[in-house]
Amino acid sequence: MYFHENVFTIKRGLVSISFIAILLSSFLGVFLILSEVGFGADLAQKIWYNDAINYIINWLMVMYAIQVAMVLLPGKPNVTRMNVAIKIGFLMLLSVHFFDVFPDNMAIEQHSGYKAEWLFNYGLILFVFLRSWSRILNNLYSKNIRSEKLFVFSFIFLILTGTMLLLMPVSTTSPISFTDALFTSTSAVCVTGLSTLDTATQFTWFGKMVILGLIQLGGIGIMTFTSFFASVGRSHHGLTEGSALSSMVLSKNMKQLFSALYAVIFVTVFFELTGVALIYFQLPADAFSDNISRFTFSLFHSVSAFCNAGFSIAPNGMMNEVFDKAYGIQMTIAWLIIFGGLGFFIITNYMERFLLIVKNFFRHFLRKHEKQFQPNLVSINSRLVVTTTFWLLSFGTGIFMFFEWDGVLSGLGFGEKLATSFFCAVTPRTAGFNTLDYSTLMFPTIMLTILFMWIGASPGSTGGGIKTTTFAIAFLNAFSIGRGKNKVHFHNREISNMSIRKAFLMITFSIFFVFLSTMLLSWHEPGVAIHALLFEAFSAFGTVGLSMNLTPWLSDSSKYILIFLMFAGRIGVITLFVAFIRKTRFLMFSYPEEEVFI
Question: How many C-beta atoms surround the C-beta of residue 274 within 10 A?
Answer without folding.
Answer: 16
